[in-house]
């Protein structure tokens, strides 16, 4: 099977690059090879390559900048996935896409199910929700996997930011009123890989039968404050930390251009039941991710 991976240099894309060659012939592209702001180029690339599986690990993920760069965020997060889904259908290719907990307003107070009404508070969430709608309209054999608080040990993730702050500050203040589920990019890629590897006969037919939106995150949930504490506790180079105290703060103390939902943990029961897989607890996964 020919596999097209988009967004190969992102947190999730990087993990897929390690994993997908096990499943088929991988063609992995980044922005220089295919600008996802160019819908005609997306169409042309897919038409020429005719992959049997398309995985979209790309997105416009700067939540605050999305408030300004609305047109660009809409292109990448809403229009491009629609084109990918439409071309996937045309070529009978399976389409895998990722969405976000930020499609919810965070007011529910318990983990969100797929059937709960959406109400994004910021442009990033709105653009990702529009992407979901476009895929549902244009696609046939697709999975939209909503996830949250994705991290890796590469790049500018929250984990790396906390490690950096701990070497620069004696006191760290981290918001304790934002709650969701930390999700290791590697786990997200691996669980997706299990789903794709599991098919018996015809991957397209089997995904078509289960097409839809599923919640897929690290197991359990926590506040950013408690997540930061766990990051410091798992730091393999703790002797480099100069931090002496970590203090809880409220989101009001750190105003940002984009409003974020306060409680946006996702209930992943539907995914676990439909695909027969268990999602490991976020604490165990974080510990593994940070072990050298
Ligand atoms: N990160 C989170 O906390 C989080 C939370 C919930 C859901 N998600 C979703 O999970 C998925 C994976 O997220 P991630 O954290 O792995 O994202 P990421 O690390 O920010 O990677 C996104 C990738 O998309 C690429 N991209 C952006 N604009 C592009 C364009 N115009 N043309 C081509 N490529 C472009 C980026 O390329 P460059 O490297 O060139 O910029 C980057 O490689 C996304 O769908 C995201 O919405 C993420």
Overall strand count: 12
Sheet of most strands: 6 strands, parallel
**Gap from first CA to last CA:** 34 Å
Order of strands, widest sheet: 2-1-3-4-5-10
- Report Rg: 19 Å
Low-confidence stretches: none
Structural class category? alpha/beta
In this entry the ligands are: NADP nicotinamide-adenine-dinucleotide phosphate
Give the overall silhouette: globular
Tell me the fraction of residues in β-strands, as a range: 15-25%
Mean pLDDT rating: 96
Elements, N to C (H/E): EHEHEHEHEEHEEEHHEEHEHH
Helix content: 25-40%
Number of helices: 10
Describe the structure.
- Strand 1 (2-6), helix 1 and strand 2 form a beta-alpha-beta unit.
- Helix 2 (39-49) packs parallel to helix 3 and helix 3 (70-90) packs parallel to helix 4 (123-138).
- The chain is globular and about 55 Å long.
- 38% of the residues lie in helices and 17% in strands.
- The protein has a six-stranded parallel β-sheet, sandwiched between helices.
- It starts with a strand and ends with a helix.
- The model has no long low-confidence stretch (mean pLDDT 96).
- The longest helix has 21 residues, at 70-90.
- By secondary structure, it is an alpha/beta fold.
- The structure holds NADP nicotinamide-adenine-dinucleotide phosphate.
- Residues 7, 9-13, 30-31, 35-37, 57-61, 76, 98, 100, 128, 147-150, 185 line the site of NADP nicotinamide-adenine-dinucleotide phosphate.
Notable characteristics:
292 residues; alpha/beta; six-stranded parallel sheet; 38% helix; globular; binds NADP nicotinamide-adenine-dinucleotide phosphate
């Amino acid at each position: 099977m020919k596999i097209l991976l988009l967004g190969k240099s992102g947190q999730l894309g990087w993990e897929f690059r390690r994993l997908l060659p096990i499943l088929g012939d991988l063609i992995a592209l980044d922005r220089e090879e295919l600008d996802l702001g160019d819908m005609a180029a997306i169409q042309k690339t897919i038409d020429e390559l005719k992959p049997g599986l398309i995985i979209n690990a790309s997105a416009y993920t700067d939540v605050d900048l999305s408030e300004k760069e609305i047109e660009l965020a809409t292109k990448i997060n809403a229009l491009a996935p629609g084109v990918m889904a439409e071309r996937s259908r045309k070529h009978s290719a399976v389409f895998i896409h990722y969405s976000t907990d930020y499609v919810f307003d965070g007011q529910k107070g318990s983990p969100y199910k797929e059937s709960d009404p959406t109400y994004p508070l910021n442009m990033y969430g709105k653009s990702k929700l529009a992407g979901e709608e476009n895929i549902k309209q244009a696609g046939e054999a697709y999975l939209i996997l909503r996830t949250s608080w994705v991290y890796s040990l590469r790049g500018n993730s929250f984990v790396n930011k906390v490690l950096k702050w701990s070497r620069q500050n004696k006191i760290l203040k981290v918001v304790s009123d934002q709650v969701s589920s930390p999700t290791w990019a590697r786990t997200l890629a691996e669980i997706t890989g299990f789903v794709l590897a599991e098919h018996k006969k015809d991957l397209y037919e089997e995904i078509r039968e289960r097409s839809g939106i599923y919640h897929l995150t690290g197991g359990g949930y926590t506040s950013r404050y408690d997540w930061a504490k766990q990051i410091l506790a798992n730091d393999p180079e703790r002797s480099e930390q100069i931090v002496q105290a970590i203090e809880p703060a409220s989101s009001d103390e750190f105003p940002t251009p984009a409003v974020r939902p306060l409680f946006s943990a996702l209930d992943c029961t539907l995914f676990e039941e439909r695909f027969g897989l268990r999602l490991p607890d976020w604490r165990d996964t974080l510990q593994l991710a940070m072990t050298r």
